[in-house]
Design a protein that fits this description.
Two copies of one chain form a homodimer.
Chain A: H1 2-6, H2 21-32, E1 43-48, H3 51-60, H4 66-69, E2 72-79, H5 81-89, H6 99-122, E3 126-130, H7 132-135, H8 137-144, E4 150-159, E5 177-179, H9 187-199, H10 201-210, H11 215-223, H12 226-242
Helix pairs in contact in A: 2-6, 3-8
Chain lengths: ~250, ~250
Amino acid sequence: MLDTIFNHRSIRNYKSDPIAESLLDDILRAGSRASTTGNMQVYSIIVTSDTLLKEKLWEIHFRQNMVKQAPVILTFCADFNRFNIWCRQRKAEPGYDNFLSFITAFIDALLAAQNCALAAEDAGLGICYLGTTTYNADKIIDVLELPEFVVPVTTLVIGYAADDPGLTDRLPVEAVVHPEKYKNYSAADIDRLYLEKESMEQTASLLEINKLETLAQIFAQKRYTKKDNEFFSGKYLEVIRRQGFMK
Amino acid sequence: MLDTIFNHRSIRNYKSDPIAESLLDDILRAGSRASTTGNMQVYSIIVTSDTLLKEKLWEIHFRQNMVKQAPVILTFCADFNRFNIWCRQRKAEPGYDNFLSFITAFIDALLAAQNCALAAEDAGLGICYLGTTTYNADKIIDVLELPEFVVPVTTLVIGYAADDPGLTDRLPVEAVVHPEKYKNYSAADIDRLYLEKESMEQTASLLEINKLETLAQIFAQKRYTKKDNEFFSGKYLEVIRRQGFMK
């Protein structure tokens, strides 16, 4: 288990080899064993392998080729639709058209996703999460025909790796861990915790390509800009509202 | 790996035995290897074992005794504070005071949490997620002294199990899986998918205790009511806003 966790890499190039049905079933069942609020299981997993649908998802996920290459795309959704139908069919009036219920379902979907990711990696498959899911949730809703009370949360690309990237760097664990209470960061803490990341050869070449002075500028000015974040914030909030969760 | 996933139970009674420091360190490092958006690691883990602090958390988490019993409480937070400080210290103006950035950090925190949960279970520890984290996030912020841009997402109770509950039932996996696109549920689908859950002895006794006709009514009228959900929705949205993520 720990080996699988500590060997995780995001795979961005895939072979076209299909995933055996029994293995895919194991992966999905692994997802369904994750913790879930009150055992409500308020999430759904859309398993897409159809070429045309994958092409539409590829378009939505910023044309990252892995979406077309990999045999299976799993879209994890916050889903109170099934639970609401069950309630109404059983003489109960559901009260889940609100933000807390969305958040609850969002959590369920992510714990299931990480179980699927680890089960896949444990079986020798590669995976990659697509953050673009929340950016273009509106378009995913159209393509996957998601009804009210279903909102895309994250996507896993799954398949056999066509390359073998090294482990990605991480901050020293003490950067993200706070004993007892939150301890805020001094300037010296930040320098120390980001030193390794900033000293990497890869960082130097990124700075040269982008003609920028610091790695933080690459994040703030190129990769995750205020303008884009604000644009996609508005879109995602509108999706949450339109799908029924902001009453 | 699959064994650990398929044997997951939520443990609600703990021995007071401490967790060895090296094991806890493995669990936290497992968290830090999880996928994270753009390798930003925009989450933090607060590790609380102090008796007084745990007592305050116990109060916040609806006085569930496991919070006092278990040796370690991990509070997972969406955290752009560290990243923002780093940006400012590196001549970059962060643009992360918006809802999308909150959602991004929320996802990061949950993937790390599930890695920690599985690493703990793999080592023979018991775990339980506390959904009450989002209900009383405001109080957790006070107790754990979380600064702006840090919002509690979920909590893991970790320790050695004092009981050995059976596996919890789950819906058949086809209930949560949709091949290719979302397929909505017919009345017959709902009857079939919820049959096992509704037929359980435990359900019959719950109905008798609550003097209600259906299991769905227990959820909608007792456990997760519209009134509570709306109250906690307002509180959590206010927390997100107050911590700086709704600009």
